[in-house]
Design a protein that fits this description.
This protein has 82 residues and is mostly helical. Helix content is 83%, strand content 0%.
């Protein structure tokens, strides 16, 4: 049979790990500096990727508009020449 004090100790350790406050998580100590830096880098990468997707989407949209006007102009020329 297991020792009940050991089980209580394990349960209290797990509870202590799960009950961290925001101040403890965001505290810039040596354990969390890497996590905060990594979070900042990943946020910067996410912003850069979203910005590039926006620029590419706008470029595709503008190209589609330009080529649709060119296609319309060419079709009008073909119709007038027939």
């Amino acid at each position: 049979m297991q020792n009940p004090k050991k089980n209580d100790l394990k349960t209290s350790e797990k509870g202590a790990e799960n009950n961290k406050q925001w101040g403890e998580i965001l505290d810039p100590d040596t354990d969390n500096i890497f996590a905060i830096g990594l979070t900042r880098v990943l946020t910067w990468v996410r912003v850069q990727v979203l910005w590039q997707l926006l620029v590419i989407s706008l470029a595709i949209f503008v190209a589609a508009l330009i080529y649709s006007f060119i296609a319309t102009f060419l079709i009008l020329i073909l119709i007038t020449l027939l």
